[in-house]
């Protein structure tokens, strides 16, 4: 997935969890720093960074994939009915069929997001 698609996956997932970006920033900060923050200032700085990463087209996909993996392991995610899409490319399906399936999946995801 590209950066824009990963950003949309993250935004849709946190909506499904009932989270806002500040909650995501706190969860990510604690997980990635392997500690509880001592000051709200450290989370606030990470929050500002995260907001930019979720908007900027230059955010490396690897960073966003790391965030998705953290969300997948969170207990709130484990309890809800949200599923994060994970595309595994195959060589047995033609590129035309793959792009058509991708388009269909995007439409389904948008439809589900509208239902929430």
Describe the 3D structure.
The chain is mainly alpha-helical and 116 residues long. Helix content is 70%, strand content 0%. Helix 1 runs parallel beside helix 4 (61-73) and helix 2 crosses helix 3. The two termini are 24 Å apart. The mean pLDDT is 84.
Compose a concise summary of this entry.
Helices cover 70% and strands 0% of the residues. The protein has helices at residues 3-17, 21-33, 40-53, 61-73, 75-79, 95-115. Helix 1 (3-17) packs parallel to helix 4 and helix 2 (21-33) crosses helix 3 (40-53).
**Helix fraction bin:** 55-70%
Number of DSSP helical runs: 6
**Low-confidence blocks of residues:** none
Portion of residues in beta strands equals under 5%
Mean pLDDT: 84
Counting helices, strands and paired strands, the structural category is mainly alpha
**Distance between the first and last residues' Cα:** 24 Å
CA radius of gyration = 16 Å
- The gross shape turns out to be elongated
Largest sheet: none
The overall strand count is: 0
H-E string: HHHHHH
Produce the secondary structure layout.
Layout: H1 3-17, H2 21-33, H3 40-53, H4 61-73, H5 75-79, H6 95-115
Helix pairs in contact: 1-4, 2-3
Tag the structure with descriptive keywords.
116 residues; mainly alpha; 6 helices; elongated
